[in-house]
Amino acid sequence: MEEAEKKAPSVTDRYYTRWYKTDMKGKPCEDHCILQHSNRICVITLAESHPILQNGRKIKSINYRISDGCSRLNNKVSGKSKRGGQFLTEFAPLCRITCTDNIEYTIFSCIRGRLLEVNEDILKQPDLLLEKPSTEGYIAVILPKLEESKSITNGLLTRQQYEEVVSKRTAQQPKPCRDQP
């Protein structure tokens, strides 16, 4: 038996569909990954090609405070229908991550929906974001509206489309993404 066949798929690979949003807000290589569960819940993570995950970068700080009047840490959700969660548009900032080279990256929601939670664990252990970006190092969890749950993937790329974008980038760019601020 081949080694790949022996290894069972991870929980993430088994229960979530990966969607991608590349070059967020026109910034080259700032790619996000949206893990969509069959129950509509979406987990926002960094795509493997995001500059934060490249070139041995280290994280200096993660800040969920978006403005003076808005902190994602103040998000309070209650009840079965998840009332009270902040409503986000697809370009709503979730957090700002500053690397030790002082380059700051804004992480966006990528989809419309209600913010269920942010990952406070990455505030205490920023290396989770680097080491396990699609599991314990996730950024936030968002629940799209029921009527929009089928259409949220419009404008997002499949895994195959994402890999094509990344390979085209690698072939075309004299300066790889990981070296760009």
UniProtKB/TrEMBL annotation:
GO biological process assignments: dendrite morphogenesis; regulation of actin filament polymerization; regulation of filopodium assembly
One Pfam family of this chain: GCV_H
Entry's Gene Ontology cellular component terms: dendrite; filopodium tip; growth cone; lamellipodium; nuclear speck
Keywords assigned: Cell projection, Nucleus
Annotated compartments: Cell projection, Dendrite; Cell projection, Growth cone; Cell projection, Lamellipodium; Nucleus speckle
Hydrolase among keywords: no
Main location: other
Molecular functions (GO terms): actin filament binding; actin monomer binding
Record flagged with keyword Nucleus: yes
Chain coiled-coil ranges: none
Family to which the UniProt record says this protein belongs: Belongs to the ABITRAM family.
Record's protein name: Protein Abitram
The organism of origin for this protein: Pygocentrus nattereri (Red-bellied piranha)
